[in-house]
From TrEMBL:
Pfam families on file: EMC3_TMCO1
Entry similarity comment: Belongs to the TMCO1 family.
Region (Disordered): 1-22
GO molecular function: calcium channel activity
Key words, A-Z: Calcium, Calcium channel, Calcium transport, Coiled coil, Endoplasmic reticulum, Ion channel, Ion transport, Membrane, Transmembrane, Transmembrane helix, Transport
Name of the featured protein: CLAC channel
Amino acid sequence: MPGKSEKTKTNNSSSSQSQIPSSIQFPMASALISGAKYSDSLTVVGTSLCTAVVCEAISWLLIYRTASYKSLKSSIDKASKKLETMKTTDGNPTLLKKSSKTKKMDRVESSLKESSRDLSMFKFKSGAVVALVLFIVFGLLNSMFEGRVVAKIPFVPIRLVQKMSHRGLVGDDMTDCSMTFLYFLCSISIRTNLQKFLGFSPPRGAAGGGMFPMPDPKSS
C-alpha cells in the first residue's frame, strides 16, 4: 500500500534523526553553553588586556614620548654597556691601572644609579594616573564578580596562595578561582609582555635601580 510505505519512511526518518547525538543536532546550543561557562573568565581576561593597553597608552602620552625620558634611557644604556665592557676587559693590569680602573667603574656606577633614580622619579608622573585606572577597574570587576567562581585551578594550590585564589568564595573546593586572583595574574603577565612587545620595558641597567636602591657595600 502506498500510504503504509510513506508512513514507514517517515517513521524511519524520524527515528534516524532521534538517534543523532544532540551535540551534532544543536551545535549552536552547545557552543552557547560552553561560551556561557567560560564567560566570566573571558570577561576578566579581556578587561585585563584592555586595561593594560589603556595604561600603556597613558604612559606613552606622559612619559615614553618625551625627550627627557629618551635622554635618560639613552644615558642608562650607555652607562650599563660601558660598565659591562670595563668589567669584562681585565687582562693583566698593574696595581696602578687597577686602582684607576676601579675609580672609573665607581664613577660609572654612581652615574648609573643617579640616572636610574631620576628615571624612577620621572615615572611617578603617570604612576598616579595608572594606579587610579587600575583601582577603578578593579572596583568594577569586584562589584560584578563578588563571591563568584570565575575559573578552575587544575591543581590544589599551596596554603599561602589559597588566601588569594579563594578570597571571597564560599565552599571548601580550593580549586575554585576568584576574580581577584585571576585579575592579578592577568595584569602581571599581560602588561609585562605588552611592554616588551611595544619596546617600553625599562632599560636593563635600571633593573636594580629605583627610588630606594640597595645600599652600596663600598660606601659602608
